[in-house]
Design brief:
Layout lengths: L4 H12 L3 H15 L16 H6 L1 H4 L3 E14 L2 E8 L2 E8 H4 L1 H9 L5 E10 L5 E12 L15 H6 L1 H7 L1 H23 L3 E2 L5 E2 L11 E4 L4 E5 L4 H9 L4 E9 L11 E10 L3 H20 L3 E4 L2 E4 L5 E4 H9 L9 H10 L10 H13 L7 E4 L21 E6 L2 E8 L4 H16 L10 H9 L4 E7 H9 L18
Parallel strand pairs: 3-5, 6-10, 14-15
Antiparallel strand pairs: 1-2, 1-4, 2-3, 4-5, 7-9, 8-9, 10-11, 11-18, 12-13, 15-16, 16-17, 17-18
Helix pairs in contact: 8-9, 9-11, 9-17, 10-16, 12-14, 13-14, 15-16
This protein binds one RNA strand through helix 2, strand 1, strand 2, strand 3 and helix 7.
RNA sequence: GACCCAUUAGCUCAGUCGGUAGAGCACUUGACUUUUAAUCAAGGAGUCCGGCGUUCGAAUCGCCGAUGGGUCACCA
């Protein structure tokens, strides 16, 4: 680590201004070092059990010696005997410490240990008079000194600013948040297993793109020094995964971070995790089957049920899920039948009469999509596939044979939120080039989210891509649903924050 | 980007009408060999988010700014 002079000086100044709690802890560390008990010199410890193992297998372990390690989270000294709770990665367990077991010097040292210190404890498993499974310490080793006080045990840490910026504190003092991240990990690994079992190949495609494509979004820009070029952080994995299909891999997927330089909200973080998968010779209906089966399978395996409660609302993920076209959805929820509307102007008039804001140049499809987003989306609480999106808003989806204005595309809505997006992929390179030109026109007119022209991708399509189904699922939103998390920041370990000062 | 709300001890929070800072936990000292938010006694701890202003006097009122949260806009 390199420290500038300024940093060293500012640390010195901080040392002088340490508050009482910090000063006491530094002094304790200093004393330990002088006595040759510097905890930071220890490199290795060998625990034999986790707290949870001991509690679950008490009958088998009662009376036997174990070695545990973890963080002191409570401490009650009662003269010549003490109790403390140790938090390890699987939970917590009480230790019982007596001077005549530990010895005078070791017991005095223990009394000086602070909440937050990491210790190793060896001792005998037993149950206290009050019936709590505990470890009777015969030896305690200080494995690391905590120089910062932990937030309070009873009220926990509530300040969301500190919780997100110093997630380690959140994880230590708010046990329920640990569950969310354990579930997140299980959800993702179950998803991998599901796809691997079905012959999908997991691949990794570049994050640095010279053209940011595959979605309509504003990208982050970064710079490569040696090449002296600006590069974009990817906004989707779509175009590279399709190249894999062209290259002859019939089933591929990537679970990866994508970056969109847009507003932040309860459902949006600038970097988020998506899975995209592509299957040759499949269509968007196959993607619907796969989506509902995969999500239901994950829910069942990870939560033990396909019925979940999200923020007080019961959501039934048991397949099959409702499927309806965008036109039917708009008809059902607003009474307006777009089958009967053919002219752009007529569509715009309908939007205006419903107080849906649209631009004067909006076409039939754009209006249909706007009315859907404004009037229907929020009502889709139970899982619903909305199918057959207008072509104007779907530059990468295959045009419907039955209706030139629409595409073979669906989005999945649960709890009024978009969770997945899928198409029968456009594999006609001539059509694709025209769609990109259309997008490039919008871009030239100032739409920063319009797709960039990508000649390399069109050229790849010209080599020939089989008919393919593609699907993208927002992992963070899926995790939110399955863990009943209110904000996307509650399922992202270190959400993007503005730096302090 | 716009609007609304919040910011007081390490943490969780009170703070009345503008009168000079409080509690619980945590911390320090002492007592206590089966406690459960241990208990008992004593003690220490503050840039009241920052700046400017109004005022005899500001945590409190006004303005500007910072950070966070919420709603909207944009998006997934």
């Amino acid at each position: 680590m390199n420290h500038s002079k300024d940093e060293i000086q500012s640390n010195d100044i901080m040392d002088e201004n340490l508050n009482e709690i910090l000063k006491v802890r530094h002094d304790k560390l200093e004393r330990l070092r002088k006595e040759g008990k510097d905890p930071f010199k220890i490199t290795k410890y060998n625990p034999t059990h986790y707290s949870e193992d001991i509690i679950k297998n008490f009958d088998g372990l009662d009376g036997t010696d174990v070695v545990i390690a973890g963080r002191i989270i409570t401490k009650r000294v009662m003269g010549k005997a003490s109790f403390a709770h140790i938090l390890d990665s699987k939970g917590q367990i009480q230790i019982f410490v007596q001077v005549n077991r530990l010895g005078e010097e070791a017991y005095e040292d223990f009394k000086d240990y602070d909440i937050g210190d990491i210790i190793g404890v060896s001792g005998e498993v037993f149950k206290t008079k009050r019936g709590e499974i505990s470890v009777k310490a015969s030896e305690i080793v200080l494995l690391s000194k905590s120089l910062q006080p932990l937030p309070e045990k009873w009220h926990g840490l509530k300040d969301v600013d500190i919780r997100y910026r110093q997630r380690h504190l959140d994880l230590i003092v708010n046990p329920e948040i640990r569950r969310t991240f354990i579930l997140r990990s299980k959800i993702i690994s179950r998803m991998r297993k599901y796809l691997d079992e079905r012959g999908f190949l997991e691949v990794e495609t570049p994050i640095l793109h010279s053209i940011a494509g595959g979605a309509e979004a504003r990208p982050f820009i970064t710079h490569h020094n040696t090449l002296d070029i600006d590069l974009y952080m990817r906004i989707a994995t779509e175009l590279h995964l399709k190249r894999m299909i062209i290259g002859g891999f019939d089933k591929v997927y990537e679970i990866g971070r994508v970056f969109r330089n847009e507003g932040m909200s309860i459902k949006h973080n600038p970097e988020f995790t998506m899975i995209e998968l592509y299957e040759a010779y499949a269509d968007y209906k196959d993607m619907m089957d796969l989506t509902e089966d995969m999500v239901a399978t994950i829910a069942k395996d990870v939560l033990g049920t396909t019925v979940v409660t999200y923020q007080g609302t019961k959501v039934d993920l048991t397949p099959p899920w409702r499927r309806l076209s965008m036109i039917d959805a708009v008809k059902e929820y607003t009474g307006v039948d777009f089958n009967d509307i053919t002219e752009d102007g007529e569509a715009r008039d309908v939007a205006k009469s419903m107080e849906v804001e649209i631009e004067d140049s909006a076409t039939w499809g754009v209006v249909l999509n706007s009315i859907f987003e404004e009037k229907v989306e929020e009502q889709l609480v139970q899982p619903t596939f909305i199918m057959d999106y207008p072509i104007e808003v779907s530059p990468l989806a295959k045009r419907m044979e039955e209706d030139e204005r629409l595409t073979y595309r669906f989005e999945l809505f649960i709890t009024s939120r978009e969770l997945a997006n899928a198409y029968s992929e456009l594999n006609d390179p001539i059509d694709q080039r025209e769609r990109f030109l259309e997008q490039a026109k919008k871009r030239a007119e100032g739409d920063e989210e319009a797709h960039m022209m990508d000649d390399d991708f069109v050229k790849a399509l010209e080599v020939g891509m089989p008919p393919t189904g593609g699907l993208g699922i927002g992992i963070d939103r899926l995790v939110m649903l399955l863990t009943d998390s209110y904000s996307i920041r509650d399922v992202i370990l270190f959400p993007t924050m503005r730096p302090k000062e």
